[in-house]
Amino acid sequence: MRERIAAALKEAQKGKNKRRTLTLRLICAALTDRDIALRGKGKDRADAEEVLDILTRMVRQREESSKAYREGGRPELEQQELEEIEIIREFLPKQLSEEEFQAAIVAAISETGAASLRDMGKAMGYLKEHYRGKLDMGRAGASVKVVLGG
């Protein structure tokens, strides 16, 4: 994935695409920051799962920012955040459709035998293991909680 990001950055720079270049540089900086933090813990660099987590977090941050800009009457800044979201999502796995999302929740609960809110951690662990990067874990947590009676 890092190679794809680096190649996309080179291409954006050659094409003089300012927004894309800036966004890809932000991704590279976030990955470098994580790599540096992991060196103190005995790891060389972030693995593929950690890269997915970083990209997912970047999308979530931009979604929150775009909402704030929309509510604040700043459509130009909202548009900028939405463009960055699209660029970052190019490097994430395809998101599950609504039907697939619901099926994943049901599968997580049935596979783990979750029966109450106490078992929510088991279901979320299953979702993280099998659907990392493919669904919004915040939304999934809320759905699991509703199904388990919370």
Write the SSE topology.
Elements: H1 2-14, H2 18-39, H3 48-71, H4 75-89, H5 98-112, H6 120-131, H7 137-147
Helix pairs in contact: 1-2, 2-4, 3-4, 5-6, 6-7
Key attributes of the depicted protein:
150 residues, 75% helix, Arc Repressor Mutant, subunit A, mainly alpha, 7 helices
Helical coverage, percent range: over 70%
Structural Rg: 18 Å
Q: Rough shape?
A: globular
Strand content: under 5%
CATH domain class name of the largest domain:
Mainly Alpha
Instruction: Indicate the CATH topology of the largest domain.
Output: Hypothetical Protein Yqey, Chain: A, domain1
Distance between the ends: 37 Å
Domains, number: 2
Taking the sheet with the most strands, its summary is: none
CATH architecture of the largest domain, please? Orthogonal Bundle
What count of helical segments does DSSP give? 7
Class by helix and strand content? mainly alpha
| Total beta strand runs | 0
Can you give me a brief rundown of this structure?
By secondary structure, this protein is an all-alpha fold. Helices cover 75% and strands 0% of the residues. α1 (2-14) packs antiparallel against α2, α2 (18-39) crosses α4 and α3 (48-71) runs antiparallel to α4 (75-89).
